[in-house]
Design goal:
The complex is a heterodimer.
Chain A (H helix, E strand, L loop, with lengths): L3 E3 L1 H10 L5 E5 L9 H6 L4 E3 L4 H13 L3 E7 H5 L3 H9 L6 E5 L16 H6 L5 E4 L3 H12 L5 E5 L3 E3 L11 E6 L3 E6 L2 H7 L1 H6 L4 E6 L1 E3 L3 H8 L5 E9 L4 H12 L4 E7 L9 H7 L4 H12 L28
Parallel strand pairs in A: 2-3, 2-4, 4-5, 5-7, 6-7, 10-11, 10-13, 13-14
Antiparallel strand pairs in A: 1-8, 6-12, 9-11
Chain B lengths: L6 H18 L2 E2 L1 H18 L41 E4 L5 H10 L6 H4 L29 H14 L6 E6 L6 H12 L5 E7 L2 E2 L2 E2 H4 L5 H7 L3 E6 L3 H7 L9 E6 L19 E2 L3 H15 L9
Parallel strand pairs in B: 2-3, 3-4, 4-8, 7-8
Antiparallel strand pairs in B: 1-9, 5-6
Helix pairs in contact in B: 1-2, 1-3, 1-10, 2-3, 5-6
Classes of the chains: A alpha/beta, B alpha/beta.
Organism (chain B): Paracoccus homiensis
Protein name (chain B): Transketolase
Keywords (chain B): Thiamine pyrophosphate
């Protein structure tokens, strides 16, 4: 059974930021929801409450950057780029301010529905010059996200997981690299964020079916090491399948497609994720099943790619984690 | 490097330069020179504590946008001197006042007159809408409403570091239609950012015409005060009033000076163009010629020979 870590960001941010005079913790009225309430209480001199006013917060952070600070902005990801997109562009991205944008509740990890689900943020951020994009997929990556983000000479967009987070990896994020989780030679599976755990759930069933899977996990989405990906694509016989907690336009599916097209790779690619649709409110397992973001969706995608039926059902997949959506550790309530 | 000339002389010089430039180029931001001449002259010639410029008197051409592959990138802030703790900083929030701001830099000896010849020319850093890399600019303010927030962030950071220098934002009244302006004021008040200063050119004009016809904004002095700022309203062409206004006590609050101005001040013929004063492009050779003679007389100069 996979180890679950409770609120890894809370501890990681505090141990990284506390006592560093150039790091400031900014929040827009979602302080406990972004797990920095303890930091606020214990280090009030490093905490700036900016209220429900994200446009000001983005430009204010740009001004702090101009004064030599490295602000970590905490709010739900969706609130950090939709309304204040102009401010993000003009006050942070263009001038390459060292602002660390800690976006919580990526994709369908919230039951909050359309207004709370950042489903196209990676697409938006990939098209912003000077932006770096990191995404966490497990507790170890959440624990190392602050240090990774703060190593960047410029703005950084981070998709951060909160609450109860599984530990899948034992090494921290190394910016610019990718994790090779299995080294098969039939099919290349590329995942990021919470979808990596789903792909790992399908691993043993696919192995039993005789498929040799090469599995990559992306924590660094921009900048991206195209050459490493092309080497992996060259190592598999059939093709590539991507799975992401994001729309398939502009996310890692697009990233892989562009990499293949630029290099003239003729293999097939199947992109799984939100297919040109909004999601609605519901639990994470329900939404991942409903929108085809889970392990079973990946298996069906692989069947499509190989033209074979493996007879794999939900019962054959490693047991899904049971999550209590409304538990204290995973305070979905705003 | 101030007080070599009176602020009245600097304001007149700004208007003469903007007038000459607009005549030669068949249009320009004339009205902004009318309304803001005293404010920018006062800031640069008297009020701001600035060091000597760190960038060449004749601006360098455009040298690329900020990117990891452009390590030598710098902003145009060096025309305001070094960004060291003791000195003030200034943002021109309505970046379309750039022509007036560049004319001010020339009048106070921070940029060579050749700089204005580069205005809005391809490959030049002296851009029509002041960019970060344009002379005297430190941040992009072309989208109205972001200047005061950025100033608040910088001022907060500087106060935290114990720096004596103030952060000033030159604003325009149209910006009060943007919600972000009010977000900025409430944040500056909440955090006691009293080293933040703004002077706003309240000329009652915006791109579509008179503000009252586009979007009525009401009593902005009371609104600013209710949002937590110290706010004082003056005649924006009265330098004595300006000097007194900045002495207003504002402990724990940003100070916002509303400079009520006349968009035709010193160029009375511009009233013919009311209510479309945002950018005056001459409609005919006849209009250009009449304005040339009239404004030249108002400003005490010969009409501009723009025929060549």
């Amino acid at each position: 059974m996979v180890e679950m870590v409770s609120r890894p960001y809370a501890k990681a941010f505090e141990s990284f930021a506390a006592g560093n005079p150039d790091i400031l913790c900014l929040s827009a009225d979602l302080t406990s929801s972004c797990e920095v309430d303890g930091f606020r209480d214990r280090h009030p001199d490093q905490f700036i409450s900016l209220g429900m006013a994200e446009q000001n917060m983005m430009s204010f952070a740009g001004g702090l950057g101009l004064a030599g600070y490295r602000p970590f902005i905490h709010t739900f990801g969706v609130f950090m780029y939709r309304r204040p997109y102009d401010q993000l562009m003009a006050s942070i991205a263009y001038p390459r301010r060292k602002v660390r944008l800690m976006g919580f509740l990526p994709g369908i990890t919230t039951p909050g529905g359309m207004t709370h689900q950042s489903i196209e943020d990676i697409s938006v951020m990939r098209s912003i010059p000077n932006m770096t994009i990191l995404e966490t997929g497990d507790a170890t990556e959440v624990e190392s996200i602050c240090e990774a983000a703060d190593s960047i000479d410029g703005p950084v967009w981070c998709r951060v997981l909160r609450g109860s987070v599984p530990r899948l990896f034992d090494t921290p994020i190394k910016v610019g690299e990718m994790r090779e989780l299995s080294s098969g030679d039939d099919i290349l599976v590329v995942t990021s964020g919470i979808c990596t755990e789903e792909a790992m759930r399908a691993r043993s069933a696919l192995a039993k079916a005789g498929l040799s899977i090469r599995h990559l996990h992306l924590h660094t989405i921009k900048p991206f090491d195209s050459k490493a990906l092309l080497d992996h694509i060259g190592s598999v016989k059939h093709g590539v399948i991507t799975l992401e907690n994001h729309v398939t336009e502009g996310g890692i599916g697009s990233l892989v497609a562009e990499t293949m097209a630029d290099a003239g790779v003729g293999k097939r690619l199947i992109r799984l994720g939100l297919k040109d649709t909004y999601a609605h409110g519901g639990s994470r397992p329900y939404l991942m099943r409903y929108y085809g973001l889970d392990a079973l969706a990946l298996v069906r995608g692989i069947e499509d790619l190989t033209g074979q039926q493996f007879g794999i059902t939900e019962n054959d997949l490693d047991s899904a984690r049971v999550e209590d959506v409304h538990s204290l550790v995973k305070a979905e309530a705003l | 490097m101030r007080n070599e000339r009176t602020t009245e002389e600097v304001a007149l010089g700004i208007r003469r330069r903007v007038f000459e430039h607009s005549m030669r180029n068949n249009g320009g931001y004339l009205s902004q020179a009318c309304s803001a001449g005293e404010q920018l002259a006062w800031l640069y010639n008297e009020e701001l504590k600035l060091g000597a410029p760190t960038l060449p008197m004749i601006p360098k051409p455009f040298e690329g946008v900020p990117s990891p592959s452009n390590p030598d990138y710098h902003t145009g802030a060096g025309y305001n001197g070094p960004a060291t703790p003791e000195f003030d900083r200034l943002f021109i929030a309505p970046a379309h006042y750039a022509l007036v701001a560049y004319a001010t830099l020339i009048e106070v000896g921070r940029m060579a007159p050749e700089g204005l010849e580069m205005f809005n020319k391809d490959g030049s850093s002296v851009e029509m809408i002041g960019a970060e890399h344009s002379p005297g600019m430190e941040v992009h303010n072309g989208t109205l409403g972001i200047g005061l927030s950025t100033g608040a962030g910088l001022a907060y950071g500087r106060k935290r570091r114990g720096e004596a220098g103030r952060t000033w934002v030159f604003m325009s009244d149209g910006e009060v239609q943007e919600g972000q302006t009010w977000e900025a004021v409430q944040a500056a008040a909440h955090h006691g950012i009293d080293n933040l200063y703004a002077i706003m050119d309240v000329n009652d004009q915006q791109c579509d015409g008179a503000m009252s016809s586009v979007m009525e904004v009401g009593d902005i002095k009371t609104k600013f005060q209710n949002f937590g700022a110290a706010c004082i309203e003056i005649d924006g062409h009265d330098l004595t009033a300006m000097r007194d206004a900045v002495k207003e006590k504002h402990d724990g609050k940003p100070l916002i000076i509303l400079a009520r101005t006349n968009p035709f001040h010193t160029m009375s013929i511009l009233e013919e163009r009311f209510p479309r004063l945002h950018y005056v492009r001459f409609k005919s050779e006849d209009e250009r010629a009449r304005m040339n003679v009239s404004i030249a007389a108002d400003l005490g100069v010969e009409p501009v020979d723009y025929s060549h």
